[in-house]
Amino acid sequence: MTRRERRNLVNGLLFASPYIVGFLAFTLYPLAATVYYSFCHYNVVTPPVWAGLDNYREMFALSGDNLFWKSLWNTLYFTVFSVPLGLALAIGLALLLNQKVFGISAYRTIFFLPSIVPLVASSVLWLWVLDPRSGLINSTLAQFGLPQPGWIADEYWSKPSLVLMSLWGVGGAMVIFLAGLADVPETLYEVAELDGAGRFRKFWNVTLPMLTPTILFNLVMGLIGAFQYFTQVFVMTAGRGTPNDTTMFYALYLYKMAFNFLRMGYASAMACVLFLIILAATLAVLISSKKWVHYYGD
Amino acid sequence: MKTYLMWAGMVLGGACLLILLWPREASSPEEDRALAEGRTIITYWDRHTGHEYDARVDLIEEFNRSQNEVYVRTLAIGPRIEKLLTAISGGAPPDICSMESSILASLGSQGCFTPLEDFMSSEPSLNESRFFPHVWKMVSFDGHVWAVPTTTDSTCLLWNKALFRRAGLDPERPPRTMKELDEFAAKLTIKEGARIKQIGFLPWLPWDETTGWGMIFGGTWYDEEKDRVVCGTDPHIIESLRWQQQYAYNPDRKDNKPYSIDPRWVSAAQGGGFGAYQSASNPFYTGMIAMIREGEWQVEFIRKYAPDLDWGVAALPQPEGAPPVAYSPNAVVDAIPKGSRNIEAAKAFLRWFYSPRANGGPSPASDYCFAIQNVPPRPEEARQERFIGHPKFSVFVNEVLTKPAEPFPVIPAAQFLMEEMERQRGRVTAFEATPEEAAMEIEKNTNAQLDRIRMLQGRRPQ
Asked: Cis peptide before B319, with omega less than 30 degrees from 0?
């Protein structure tokens, strides 16, 4: 290494040091510590005690009333419904907002707006909308004499309510789909038209395949977000997962274990398992994507 | 030359930014003055918010004016445990913090606070003999005294006299036995088809109180000597859970009572229809609920939110043969966290707050109890005319003055036990578990949690 090269190296490291220090201190160290604590009994205030696999054994125990399984089930339920529905709605909106009509950017802004409302604010807002007695939805239903469910306060409706609520925030994905739509080459539509394709065939055989890379991206991000679902349910149920634990999501249970019951070791083990679940889900999507994602020019 | 200038500019700019952002010891003109006078500034975190916090601030300002050694800075942090936990484990706690006794039990057993037994035994007004025994239990465990009790509570039955009249009941005569409570509830419950117009009584409103009902039925949750939760086979506790269950309506059963209410309807109502607890739309104030189990703070709340409500208060009924008991689950307490840098100044404030005033007047602590209408934790203060002379407040105070009082079990797993009880009671009233199964689950799960905590304390083998 010449003097100049060494100097460049030092300068380069120096300039990158804010990130390197931040990464080591605030990402790598906490990550490694989480793995270590997951094998410990640890209450945050006294030193951790080695516990081997105790936390994991307790977590996977199949006793009838293990909240871990219930929280995992709730989270899977939410993910399975909210992610595909969110994708479908985002694509639908993007298609509608991709028309060349007057004031289209205003419409786009309106549909995008909800996704930039702070989560806590929108959660409180939805608490009002879903209020069983005087909320917007139920008072509208009452006008038409329709049955009025208890929404977030009813154990059969609480999760569907949250899925419904999550659809309100599809603006972010919608914008990405709009960008994806802009990238579909006009020539493909022209070719399809020459072949006599109608509107639906053009959508099914041109637009949708050309959107698959964008779908893949939004699917992966959606999955990760859904598995970590926390803020809304923490705000809306005051951190209790009510009614009857039907909104006790994985991340909420993890938080409760760590900060309410001082079981940081168990919470760390839950975090490690969640990491593996998300990793597996993401890998499965990525591997399967070879079969259904099409890149223009391939 | 140019590069040097640029570097100098960057360093200078950075330094200015650092000076601007550097944390200052004083954060208000009053604190600046206090610092100039050479006072010690200490930080006080209050569990209360709203008008209860304002009452505290008034007294703390009085303290700040009364001397020139210590200046107390206050912050309302609310009742949750997270902020305190992270502040203590991060090594930057307040000098004094107030909290619920259940949080004290969780954190105290981990050594999060400074033991106060020497300080308290040297203060005439803070001796053990001054306090209600059940309140003293809440602050003294694991061989130390961890906090000074500020307030305690007392639970009674409140009833709406207008609704009694409408149901043909004597508005001046509350139910005196459990059987009567059920009969009154039947008369006061009004259903129109599936619609519930009025609730007579519901054991888990305004919130779950499974512990209290268990004790009122004569049950024991926790065995101090064995340090175990022992509710699993306690017949009284199982009986109390069965009693709660019959208040839940089950479409699949034929033995529903006239007062049985669908728990799903209740949780939906709690999610919105009932209106906020601390507001004029509290369902007891609006006449949605005829009888309710409540604490002494309602004297102030009702004066504030429903001044026209015609209501009565009496001791909670007990089953025949059960030993008389007053249910006083919680206390709000003041503790000095480990890591406080001004322990002596913190003690000076506590000494002032809990001792009679220099002119012989009542202690600031009892003024505080009066301002927020809570039961004082020292019998001598609870007997002051302003508490005992009030026709309604006195009912609450007399409960703890005349009957043996029981607190919520004082165990480091208190927080867990509280939520576990609500969860299991929820399963019972949803007919997902029998009372026997639920009592057993509570015992098993809480003991597992307790064992882990004791193991970390080195008091139990791994």
From this structure: no
